[in-house]
Amino acid sequence: MWGTQKIIEDKAEEKLATDFADGRGKTIFGYYLAARDKIISEIAPEIKAREPGLTDHGPEHIEDVLTRVGLLLGETMDDMSGTNLYLLIVSILFHDVGNVYGREDHNQVVGPIYDQVRIPSNPPSLEQLQERLLVLKICRAHSGKGEDKSNNTLRFLDKTEPLFNNEPAKVQEIAAILRFADELSEGEQRTSSFALQDNFYDDATKVYHQYALFSKVTIDRELKRIALTYIIPISKKKPEKPGKLTTADLSQFLPFVYHRILKLDQERRYARHYARKYLEPYERTTITIKFVDEENNEIAGVSDGNGATNLELTDLVVPGDIEKSFIQHYPSYDPKSIIKQLNKRLRRSSQHKPTVFEKLFGGDK
User: Fold this and answer.
1) Which structural domain range is residue 48 located in?
2) Residue 298 has what DSSP assignment?
3) 294-324 pLDDT, tens per residue?
4) Are 249 and 99 in contact (CB under 8 A)?
5) Distance between CA 83 and CA 74 in Å, rounded?
6) Residue 364: inside a domain, yes or no?
7) What are the residues facing 280 on neighbouring strands?
8) Are 139 and 107 in contact (CB under 8 A)?
9) pTM for the model
C-alpha cells in the first residue's frame, strides 16, 4: 500500500464530498478504499505467482496507473464530477485483476473478483449492479477485441450511462483515459533488474523485461507531448547476463522497440479521439534513443541522418500515404544501420585507451 493518496484519489474524495450531501460522498469514497485495500493486499500480489513471466501487474502497477492518470488529466480533473472520478479510480483498481486467472482474456474475467470485493450483500442493490456493469465494460475495453473482433474496443461503449442518483457517468471517456494511462505505465518499475540479470525469465518474456528496464515514459502536458526515452547498454562481447545487449542483439530488439513506439503513438491518437476534452494537449510523441558503452558513457553518432537525436511522431497524415513503419519515418534507424554505426564507434573507442596522465591532463603524454 502506498503511503499517501494519489492526486486523483484526493480529487475524487474532494469532489464526492462536494457533490453529495449528508455524508453520502464519504460513504461512496469508502467503497473505493475498501476495494483498494482488498485488491492490494489479497488479489493483485497473486498475479505474479500465476504469471511469473509477466512484467509487473501487481499493486505497484495499480499505483503507477493512478499516478499517471493524475498527470495526464492535470487541471482538467476539476472538470470531472465525483461520480466520474470514482468510476475511473475503481476501474483502475480492477482493470488487470483478471490476470490472476491467467493472461489470456484477462480483461473478460473481472466479474468474479469484482463480486467478491464489491458486492458482499445478496441480493445486490440496483446501484451496485449498475456500478458493476460499468466497471466491467471499462475493464473489457482496456485491451483485447471489441464486439466486431477489431481492436476498436471503445467504439461499442455508450458515451454516458447513469450511476449515482442517475448522474451520467461518461463511460467512453473514462475507458479511453484508463486505456491510455495503462499503455503509458511502462519503465523500470515494471521489472526486476536482479531477476533479469539472473536469467529468471524465458526467451519469450525476456524481451518485455528488457524493454521495461531500458525505457522511460514522461507525460509532458505543458509541452503537449508524451516523451519516450530509451537508454540501451551495449556490450562488446556477449554478456553472461541479459542486463546488456551486444550490437548483434539489436537486430531483434530494435524492431520490438519500434513496434512498441508505434503502438503507444497509436494509443495516444486513439484515446485522444474518444476523450479529447481531457487529452487534447497530447499532440505528439517524441522519442530519444541512446546507447551507452560498458562504462555507461554515451556512444555518440547515432541520429536520424540529419544530426537530430530527438525524433517525433504527430497526427499529421499526408493524403495518399499509407501508415508508415518506424523505419519508414526514420530510415537511418534501420537496425542494420544502427549496428554498423555502433560497431564503428566501439572499434574506434577500443583502439586507444587513455593513460592516467591523459585522463588527468588530456592530450598525449
Assistant:
1) 7-184
2) B
3) 888 998 766 666 666 679 999 988 887 778 8
4) no
5) 18
6) no
7) none
8) yes
9) 0.91
